[in-house]
């Protein structure tokens, strides 16, 4: 059985790992936004003002919502904060 101190250390380790993953994701989205190009399909990125820091590929979503309905959809999106 792990001790209380061991459990606490594991909780802290897991939280730090999660924070590192979130920061890596934010950094990757910021880098993509800086280029203005979707890292998946190369099309433009747009901001979605529904949530702070939300960016999506202009080809995100169903026909009628994406920039060019004749081109395939792209699922890239992310947050910068
Ligand atoms: Zn895309």
SSE blueprint:
Layout: H1 4-35, E1 45-48, E2 54-57, E3 77-79
Antiparallel strand pairs: 1-2, 2-3
Residues 38, 40-41, 43, 57, 59, 74, 76 line the site of zinc ion (ZN).
Write up what this structure looks like.
It is a single chain. With about 80 residues, this protein is α+β, with helices and mostly antiparallel strands. The model has no long low-confidence stretch (mean pLDDT about 95). The protein starts with a helix and ends with a strand. A three-stranded antiparallel beta sheet has the order 1-2-3, with helices on one face. It has one domain (about 5-80). It is built from one helix and three strands; from the N terminus they run H-E-E-E. The longest helix is centred in the first third of the chain and has 32 residues, at about 5-35. It binds zinc ion. Zinc ion (ZN) binds next to loops.
What is the string of SSEs from the N terminus onward? HEEE
Number of strands: 3
Quote the beta fraction: 5-15%
Identify the bound ligands: zinc ion
Parts with pLDDT < 50 across at least 5 consecutive residues = none
What is the distance, rounded to the nearest whole angstrom, between the alpha carbons of the first and last residues?
Answer: 39 Å
Shape descriptor reads: elongated
Number of helices: 1
Q: Give the total of domains.
A: 1
